[in-house]
UniProtKB/TrEMBL annotation:
It holds the Pfam family PRK. InterPro entries: P-loop_NTPase, PRK/URK. The gene is KNAG0H01380. This is Phosphoribulokinase/uridine kinase domain-containing protein. GO terms for molecular function: ATP binding; kinase activity. It comes from Huiozyma naganishii (strain ATCC MYA-139 / BCRC 22969 / CBS 8797 / KCTC 17520 / NBRC 10181 / NCYC 3082 / Yp74L-3). Residues 58-162 form the Phosphoribulokinase/uridine kinase domain.
């Protein structure tokens, strides 16, 4: 039985990370119809309760995240997509990831994308958004999120066209999952390590697409 694979997809605030995720899910459905595609969105809870945000890793329960990731990885034939700004932050979760991707965005582009995504309708709303960004979000990205870029196997630049980055990810997963399934059918217990070796080779080849 083939083991499942975890792909961690991180990036700074208002990067095109969600666009990469949507395009990747569509590509995986076409390329690997026999696999289940499970998404874990780390930022969803922050959107539900923004008043309690501390703008730091303390906003997340990484032990709970690890438990969820491990439970889904125990299911056969599953590609797990872990998405969120802190997707690459925890070293244990990162170690479980067959492929770690970071969507990189410069400060100006990030602010413009944030304004477009939230679409403030009044001057007060825009002022509040800018104040939140300057005093909290920008500092959080600088201090906690951007450093996780160093853990990435693949760095994708912010872009409206994410097709190249998605194609690279799918190519890597093709090699990983094909070898995973082939190895699992012949040598039980070696599938994950062999698959990770394949993606390690790819990460050296594709390291920075930015």
């Amino acid at each position: 039985m083939a083991e499942s694979v975890l792909v961690a997809l991180g990036g700074t605030t208002a990067s095109s990370e969600n666009g990469v995720l949507r395009a990747l899910r569509a590509a995986l459905s076409e390329s690997f119809p026999e696999f289940t595609h499970h998404v874990l969105d780390m930022d969803l809870d922050l959107e539900l309760d923004p008043a309690t945000r501390q703008y730091s890793p303390r906003d997340f329960d990484f032990e709970d995240l690890l438990s969820k990731v491990s439970a889904v990885l125990a299911e056969p034939l599953t590609v797990v997509l872990l998405s969120g700004r802190y997707a690459l932050f925890d070293p244990v979760v990162a170690a479980l990831s067959a492929l770690k991707v970071f969507v990189d965005t410069d400060d100006d582009t990030r602010l413009i994308s944030l304004i477009r995504s939230q679409s403030p309708q009044t001057p007060d709303a825009l002022s509040g958004l800018l104040e939140d960004y300057v005093h909290h979000v920008r500092n959080e990205d600088r201090d906690y999120v951007k450093p996780t870029r160093a853990r990435a196997d693949l760095i994708i630049p912010h872009s409206n066209d994410v097709s190249l980055g998605v194609a690279i990810i799918v190519d890597g997963l093709h090699r990983c999952l094909d070898n995973n399934m082939a190895t699992a059918s012949t040598v039980p217990g070696t599938a994950r390590s062999f698959a990770v070796e394949q993606l390690d080779a790819l990460s050296g080849r594709y390291f920075d697409a930015a």
